[in-house]
Amino acid sequence: MIVELTVENLAIIERSQLVLKPGFTVLTGETGAGKSLLIDAIELALGERADTELVRTGASRASVSVVLDLSNEPAALARCQELGVGLEGTTLYIQREVAAKGGSQCRIGGKLTPVSTLRQLGSFLVDLHGQHDHQSLLDAERHIGFLDEWIGGPVVELLQRIEAAHERALEANRRLTSFRQGLRDREHRLDLLRFQVNEIEAVNPQPGELEELDAQLSRLKYAEKLATASFGALATVADQENCAIDQLGEAVKLLESAIRYDASLESVVAPMREALIEVEEAAHTLRGYSENLEADPARLDEVAGRIDSLKRLRRKYGADENEVLEFLHDAREQLALLEDGEASEEELVEAASRAGAALNEVASELTSLRKERAVEFAERTQHQLRDLAMDRAVFSVDIRPKPADATGADQVEFFFSANLGEPPRPLGKIASGGEISRVMLAIKTAMAGRAGVPTLIFDEVDAGLGGRAAVTVARKLGELAEHYQVLVITHLPQIAGRADHHFRIEKDESSGRVVTSVRLLEEHERVEEIARMLAGDHVTDAVRANAREMLGSLGVGR
User: Fold this and answer.
1) How many domains is the chain built from?
2) pTM (two decimals)
3) Strands 13-19 and 2-10
4) Tens-digit pLDDT profile for residues 251-297
5) Is residue 542 part of a domain?
6) What is the extent of the structural domain holding 258?
7) How many CB atoms lie within 10 A of CB 423?
8) How far apart are CA 325 and CA 328, in angstroms?
């Protein structure tokens, strides 16, 4: 769970620090005070895209620091270990900085870490439900994501298999389509492929050949200069009177005769003996090199011509001999296919058919899994709706077939009915705003309980609710807080009154600038805040009494 959140220079927040506890925490404040900025801060800390517009004007960077206690979260601890994330005991420290000039940095445990790692870890730490999630329920195409996320691991494994099978099917169909298109200009294509194959085969390039030929060409072009240098060096070292080998040998003999008088000279003689051996071996090698040097105009022309041929192939077919040979391999395959047109088309049709059948087979496995688990998902969601005072609501998952692709062969849509006797219909077409809010809370509650994420954050998930419905949602959030750390941004006093801890976000002016601050409210301050939420600016003693009664019946002291 989150134990501390520190935000600096994020939009209108100069610096705010929240010390959070287990249970149910609400954040309230007037519209525009900056409540959603705290959600933005948490999203940043979990790896969301960094936007330089969030940096407070005049500041060089914005910073978000989060401290999390994972002592009771084995899944999150295991994920940290998998990702190589450093912990201090079971405490996780995350810091994200966004520079005003662009770019961001992420540190986990003080160590620079890729943002991608943070994103992979974030889903094990916090489940965040914002107002935008309501819109996703109105979009039937996104319903499949809710179901798959609830099912979890088995779907992930099947989707990976489907993605691979889908790619193989696409490739098989691409090859068939390409072949059939090739048949239209078959003769022209045959002529071109035959010419390309013959041209490359006539040269018969070998990997790395050009570099070796360049070295040969240099030796042949400068044979005379190389001979002068090598024979001259050989004479100096070994062939002329009083050469280097003779002089070095004489020096070794002299010192060896003196060793009997001073054994310490051995340390001098030893490297000289080794040097004499090395020089003699070098002279032997140089002699062989010199004797093989000769000006050969015919060979020079042959090597130069070969180099030209290889460079011509490189210009036309690849950057080096390996790429040219790959081109030759592909050209031979295409030529073989075109030369055996009918048989090749049959093979490609069969290959495409097999790939499509394999895709359909694994997609069928996924369909069976989705249909089987959709029943439980619908039952759990409907159970949650019962807890949210929608006793007559019916929720179901409709799964219809579609052509298989990388997501499977299913169209998934949620059906809903709020009233007795009314058949379930597509959720996005019939549900009211308040109903959508409660269905979202029901779904997310079922999913959160399934995932086991320690912290649930709801950003005005109560939008469109009021009266009795708001009370039931408040009760449900309170029940969730018995198992999770729950953070809620709300405008409803019924929900705020249910919380264990209450922060108020306030917007003030300081030195001619707007500054947002966050403050934990004492019990008497909560009364004033609930009263403000009930009556706006016209808070009376009667409203305060109502607020005290609400706090007593919903939250404080329960």
Assistant:
1) 1
2) 0.56
3) antiparallel
4) 999 998 998 888 898 899 999 999 999 999 999 998 888 877 777 78
5) no
6) 208-319
7) 7
8) 5
